[in-house]
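quick one
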Amino acid sequence: MNIHASIQDLREALLPHRRAGRRIGLVPTMGNLHRGHLALVEAARAQCDVVVTSIFVNPLQFGPNEDLDNYPRTLDDDLTKLREGGCDLVFTPTPALMYPRGMANQTLVQVPEVSEGLCGGSRPGHFDGVSTVVNMLFNIVQPDVACFGEKDYQQLAVIRRMVQDLHLPIDILGVPTVREASGLALSSRNGYLSDEQRATAARLQGTLAELRTALEAGADIDTQLHQGLESLRRAGFEPDYLELRALDLSNVTATTHDAILLAAARLGTTRLIDNLALTLAR
Ligand code: PAF
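structure w/ pantoate:
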């Protein structure tokens, strides 16, 4: 496995593969890798001849009061996991390499509609930072396929829409969320949780599962969402949102069948997100 900290080195390493017609897969990450990330590498491996993973804690997608400085940086461990996980090349740029003019003067990619509301509502500018850096990574690596986790459902929708709108010749692969036995979705931010909070954190998926059962049986949506919020609060969460949307994140209408519950909630200072797809009784 080769590690490249410069854009030119990475491009030179990819050139012979591209010329040989090999399929290139990209897994963009912010490091602190867990089994969820390794599932992305595995999915890329299954579809591609060459797998590139980027590790970059992207300052552009963090708000002023968010956890950029404390975000876990575990490069040595990450490289060991990627080597064992079958990754071929790793790209490890710095903020100065990615944003040489500084972030205030950076050209931005803004994806309308799907970036608004949900996490976009509570983290203003977050998805502009995500779509901008992902577009840069796409331009640098020029992958055939790029893999993203379904846990970040809105992020996946934003990237799919960006790829469509900008006519990028890249297949976007959504990879199912990897969970602990308790149901807690794996996330780099789980490391911030105390043992007690970790036990409570599984109630986020548990609450969504209870709502799914009720909604699939035909219960009233607004009543269920209200009860879901109450149940999260009782468990010790401070909910940010709990919503039901159509799979493309548009609002649910009387004819929507396939839908998705999306939630974000804080446990202490840790913000967790999760989602669960369902079929509405109609
Ligand atoms: O999901 C993440 O880890 C990040 O948002 C991503 C896609 C690597 C962009 O920085």
